[in-house]
Amino acid sequence: MNYGYIRVSTREQKEDRQLIAMRAYGIDDRRIYTDKQSGKDFNRTAYKKLLKVLKKGDVLVIKSIDRLGRNYREIIKQWQYITQEINADIVVIDMKILDTTQHKDLIGTLISDIVLQLLSYVAENERINIRQRQAEGIAAAKARGVKFGREKKFYAENYISVYLKFRKKEIDRLEAERLIGCKRNTFYKMLKELKQKGLIE
């Protein structure tokens, strides 16, 4: 029996490209398992379900090695578990040499192991680079004045003093919003609340 495994890192990412590859390989949608989760470890719902149904003689198909995971040691460990403990085969569509249904002689196995270790290293290294780029991006954004986290609370007294200037036309709405640190919708929402409380006219 052939099974497919698909992984994308976030719920926003699309699995279409992997799904097309699985169908082209002839795998029925009912036997395709999909996780929308980071590849840092194998604590994934669909993957665990897949391991429970996978048995000797079955074939697990993945689009590329980084779809299996991005943790070097864990990829090797899972590969060995599937091929040696379960005695199922693995086919990596994008890397023909990583096809345990073929190359079952000693030299073929050796070459596959070397390629697997190299690609697993590349997958984890890319995960590390992604995290570094994210950290650098956040640092650069903070340096530009971009603020992260929850919006700050607006205190009535600060709002009222700015609003009074706005009402007297000493400042325009955009300047009022800038001084308070809010956007248009929040500005008018606060205005409505303060009027209801009788704090402003």
Describe this structure in words.
The chain is of the alpha/beta class and 201 residues long. The protein has two domains: 138 residues, Rossmann fold, CATH 3.40.50.1390; 41 residues. It is built from eight helices and four strands. A four-stranded parallel beta sheet has the order 2-1-3-4, with helices on both faces. It is elongated. The model has no long low-confidence stretch (mean pLDDT 80).
List keywords for this structure.
single chain, Rossmann fold, 2 domains, 4-stranded parallel β-sheet, 4 strands, elongated
Give the overall average pLDDT: 80
CATH topology of the largest domain: Rossmann fold
CATH class membership of the largest domain? Alpha Beta
Query: For the CA atoms, what is the radius of gyration?
Result: 27 Å
- Biggest sheet features: 4 strands, parallel
The SSE string, one letter per element, is EHEHEHHEHHHH
Strands in their spatial order, largest beta sheet: 2-1-3-4
Tell me the count of domains: 2
Number of helices: 8
Count of DSSP E strands? 4
Quick summary:
The protein has helices at residues 16-24, 45-53, 65-68, 72-85, 106-143, 156-167, 173-180, 184-196, and strands at 2-8, 32-36, 59-62, 89-92. The chain is an alpha/beta fold and 201 residues long.
What's the structural blueprint in terms of helices and strands?
Layout: E1 2-8, H1 16-24, E2 32-36, H2 45-53, E3 59-62, H3 65-68, H4 72-85, E4 89-92, H5 106-143, H6 156-167, H7 173-180, H8 184-196
Parallel strand pairs: 1-2, 1-3, 3-4
Helix pairs in contact: 4-5, 6-7
